[in-house]
Records
---
Amino acid sequence: MKREQYQKLIRAVFYALLCTLLWLLPCKMYISPCVMLLGLVWLADPDYAGRWQRLKERRLWIPMLLLIGYYLLYLISMAYTGNMAAGWFTMEKKLLFVIAPLLLLTMPDELVSRRHFNGLLTAFIVGCCVTIAASLAYAFVCYNHTGDSAYFYYQLVSPFQHPSYLAMYLTFSLAAALYLVGCQTEDTSMAGRVSLALYAIPAIVYLFLLQSKAGFLSLILLLVFFAIYGLVRRNKKLLISVLYIAVLSGASFWLIPNASSRLESSAAELSAGAQTNVADAGTSSMRLLIWKEALNITVEHPLFGVGAGDTQDCLNQRYEAAGMIKAYRKELNAHSQVMQTAVAIGLIGVLLLAAIFVYPIVVCRRTKLMPLWLFFILLVGLNILVESMWETIAGVSFFTVFYCLLARYGEMNAN
């Protein structure tokens, strides 16, 4: 009896820490200590045999091997990399590709229910809401001291992390809200529907203040995806919610000053094309130039890449030779995780990266989490095309944690 009570307590603490982790993700604070505590609680649970049995019975060993295999390819590349310090720093940032599957894919069945999953999504939404409030409060304080309205836009209004990552977080939080309100068979309470509807207002307004181009594309993806899903399923609740978010988005686009300024500047850059000065290129045209140089490196090192530690050094050499002064001075990464992976560990790594994304698309059709899981894959897939997401803690933590949670809860809730 004491053993059962001990396990119940340990698992309650584990779930509480997991909610705390999701709550802290948007502001990117105390992630490492929270993961360490989760690991200690995981070790304190004596049900080791049951964990591996669950992996085998529910085929959760597949996503585990995919994520850990991606990390191992980077680890193997340390054998032929030159810059060991940079390489080990890269390995440290990607450590959640190993830790997250071990902790989350082996969760006990008593923590895997609709109620538990909804609680985790709610914790993440609340974390996004707190981050928005704190960021806007910071912007107001700075504006009162300086009178500069620039504190309400782009990087200055996002003191916790890069606007592109926070925009991705917010978009997924809106997808989670749509799932909670419109995609579940059980009716949500009136208070829950009102709360999620009210949350959408600051979330969308703040998303436009972030002025992230990838964020704008992610919002369009959200509206198109859930509109199509709602039409196919003839889900009126979901369609009404999507329409509500679309109206809020349109109003924010037209009413917020400078909301479309970065989109307009990007369009101007791309239309300039070959006339763009390489040494003075903007962010959009700079990406195209960076991808070209990354592709050239991949052609020279196709199978295994240049190694985890030499990736940035090789890119810097290319930037300097091509006269890309801004990229060279700022030591910009490949600004695409696909390109970054190709440069670092070659086409073998790119194939494994593709498998990581194909697996959920194949299995999510038979799960009740299908719309949220599929949207998550599309959202991250869009963002890794234009950002080296897995070269930062913000990108790695968001992807690995939700990938493993959706895999674990998806398998448990299979139709």
Note: The longest helix spans residues 114-146.
---
Amino acid sequence: MLRGLYVHIPFCRTRCHYCHFVTTAELSPVLRERFFIALKHEIHEARRRYGSLCFDTLYLGGGTPSCLSIAEMTDLWETVHAHFKVKEGSEVTCEWNPGDGDEEKLAALAALGINRISLGAQSFQDSILKRLGRRYLVKDIFSSVEKIRTAGISNISLDLMLRVPGQKFEDFHHSLETCLALQASQVSLYDLEVHPQTVFGKLQGQGRLHLPGEEEHAGMYQDAIKVLTGAGYEHYEISNFSKAGFASRHNLIYWRNQEYLGLGPGAFSYLNGMRYQFAEGLDRYLQKCEGAVWRNDQQDVLSDAEKETETLMTGLRLREGIALSEFPKISGSILKRVKELCDEELLEEKTGKVRFTDRGKFLSESVFGFLLQKDGIS
């Protein structure tokens, strides 16, 4: 059983038009200091509660961890390692925004032990980046990739968004080809999700948000499969493609329903059969840490059947699929549904395992919904 550590950094220089994550564009020294003191309190409490946990991966996400100073990153690194063990040879990822950080900062991070960068490219068209509310240009993506490699970090994952307002098939295809030209270790796809309190959500409420149609959206996804697998990338998860040996070890912990500890506002944890969120927002997080109020805002102790259900659903996302024989508490109740989905060519069974077809991957949310109906999995 592997275990991952996730640390949420809530700071961003600006908020993108689609962002619904726990972030703030306030970057005052007072708030930053207050946050890092609170985070140290939470780390200390996690050590008191669980002991000196050992982790196989470490992931710094957000928000925008790349906006931290060298001193802040170093202090965070030392605090984590003073309380927990991160195994030698672990995958250590930092999310990065193009245009952030100079060679000195990247070299300092590499010296600390960060060996993987998840770069939020999103698109390789300046017009689309502007529409998304991103604060950089395409040239900044190229510059960042060069700086990251110069710092000695060769494992670079690139994020791409599809179903963006005004995005054409040709735009997305060009972005895919550019990822290949940059020799990304991994390419991660993200469908645009529209949430009510975001800029896009408000535009949608006014009838002013025009997204690509389902046919064009499906065409983009199928093109990603064709282009990336044709270039030798493994389509190892519904939305993720990697060169051999470069699949995200941290995210595989989530998809295999293994344990992880999440620190920071909004972060979730899954330890000892319990899934919980300590604090859902930044203000509440600061108040709870400062007041030493360590009750979780949300928590669920999962039954054996619920654990199996979650493991089955996350496992289906992976290329290898799942063997129904490994789910004795629930498999009997869904065999009929699995057969129906195979008949519809949304799932397929090979070498004793059930997995998505390419068409099923695009319609995965509908498939999951069908499997989880009340008279399916309970």
Note: The mean pLDDT is 95.
---
Amino acid sequence: MVGEPAEASIVEETDADRFCTAFAGAVAAGGTVFLANPAWGATERAQFNALSQCKIENPKSKINHGWLCIPTGGSGGKLKLARHDQDTLHAAVRGFAAHFRATKINAVGVLPLHHVGGLMGWLRCGLTGGEFVAGDWKKFEAGELPVLPGAEGGWFLSLVPTQLQRLLGRPAAVEWLRGFRAVLVGGGPAWPELAAAGAQARLPLAFTYGATETVAAVTALRPDEFLAGERGCGTALPHAQVTVDETGAIIVAGDSLFRGYWPAGRETGTWVTEDRGEFDGHGSLHVLGRRDAVIITGGEKVDPNEVEAVLRATGEFDDVVVVGVPDATWGQSVVACYPSVGKSPDQAVVAAGLDRLAPWKRPKRFAALANWPRDAAGKVKRSELVRAASAEP
């Protein structure tokens, strides 16, 4: 019937080519497009099914406003769908290209396309007329690195910090990374030793800050700035305004901000994130961690990112996350979780490293977990770690 809204579409593919085809078809068909993660468990699947069946709260609003729903927040235990449209997507791409002084964006993608980091890596290429090469992270990690053809403007690559850490341990991968115009690093906090190792290897790193709600990066440190010794996540991209309030909360405004969490809408304006940050003398944003991740033990506040950075600096952990678990005596107990697969950390080396921390900041316990709940985009599911660490003897 003429005038009826188009049916909603769900795009759920692990293969990059199939995802691109399905996404293009869904957009062409009109209506709301929902992205889904094929690796979701039963809890997140149930949350998504319930949300995707909701009707938009303001049906008289323009169909263009918020028709693309990108999942976010699942790692915190509550799945949400951030609404975007062609205006927010185009603004993010224009800002990215201007910030990096690039006319065409050519990219190698190893992040999943249902995740905002992977999606924008592909869309930047498509909307600027550049080339996109879908990569396979497992092959990259095993040393199978593609030879990239010459392309106007060079190539971009997006990694999460743990992926960069693993590639830094392989000389052939380091040499390959040097050939990129920029290696974007985001999706989680990077520790100082990782940046130092990248600088020593003379890699063109571009640390970034962004979120699903901003369709990826709103700040970025350019590779020339990084190699000149600057640190942090860089200055704001042209389409965004990033500030920090008196409490340390990072606040974002600009043209790429989401239209609300489906099915609700939101007015334009600022968005107060759950992240804490500060700016250095160069205007570069330094992310200090999640505002809701602070551990309070015996009345003392502990920043898990600080403890994680010290543990990583020992070189004894391939991956480590610090969480607070309920404790009848202290309120919360500081626990360091790490994957049980791989080498066992040398406790003497770890103890020596922790000496630099105040006693209440040092982990009361170390939990080696067989099932490490990190998703394909590199984000750890802290709520699952808390549950698993709480169940450990």
Note: The chain is about 30% helix and 25% strand.
---
Amino acid sequence: MTILGIETSCDETSAAVLRDGTLLSNIVSSQMVHQKYGGVVPELASRAHQLLIVPVVTEALQVAGVSKGDPDAVAVTYGPGLMGALLVGLNFAKALAYGLNIPLIGVNHMQAHIYSNFIDDPRPQYPFLCLIVSGGHTQLVLVRELLQHKLLGETLDDAAGEAYDKVAKMLGLGFPGGPIIDKLAREGNPEYIRFPRSLLGNENFDFSFSGIKTSVLYWLRDNGFRSNDSTQRLPDQQLKDICASFQAAVVDVLVEKTFDAAARFGIKEIAVAGGVSANSELRYRMRQRTDEGRYHVYFPKLEYCTDNAAMIALVGWMKLRTGFVSDLALTPVANLSL
């Protein structure tokens, strides 16, 4: 069974080919045009997808060594994401499924992030807890068994990755902000400034990162620095210390909330997914907790942390094996829930 996966939910155009659960190709084309704007511009993203979708799918098929008529089904993200971006991938997939007379399988982008941990070994055992952290989402999900998910908590405002991007913009570091802050933080003092750990200690498993972001803004203002002012620059070490302090606050919340949930529900298996799962401090802190011997923590390979079609193809294969097929009238849902 050969599945073609397509992902266009935000600013990566991606296609992958998976056969019987084994990945044959995974092509990702990232859009650099957004860097000068400090964030993803939806209109530019959808236009870029239109230009890239055919060559990216063609390359994925060529790398996998299959012809255009070989796929047994096409899996595609239909939400959540940017409406214009979703439309490009979904309409392409629907036309392909119709033309080849093969099943169309709509995939929830957040479910796909969960199962990015199943592309390669080692894989979590059911039941497991999944922390999804990306630029658009921060969620804690309980996975009882295959494709059965319960949302335990999510961000009430900014997602963790979004906070990284906004703080990086304040500090004049460019976009995307996560990798830049992570790199600078390695040489900084995480105790330089005590930024707030919002909602830590609450009984629920919701998150909030807008307060941390605003605290950075206020610190800059109170110390004579104007965010986004290119004529001002923090001393190098102070910049690294601020990055380390900010990152420590975000990671503290993510780690403590996750392990609190694991303890409450008696879960020993923990998976982390999404773009922020590539963060070196988060990986270190999560694995540090496994030294207690009570938990096993799983991370996807770095190439599967950010948006990619490999995870879409895998979930499509999983759903098709259960007999699930989408209607060709499937429409994109920008705010699709888990």
Note: The radius of gyration is 20 Å.
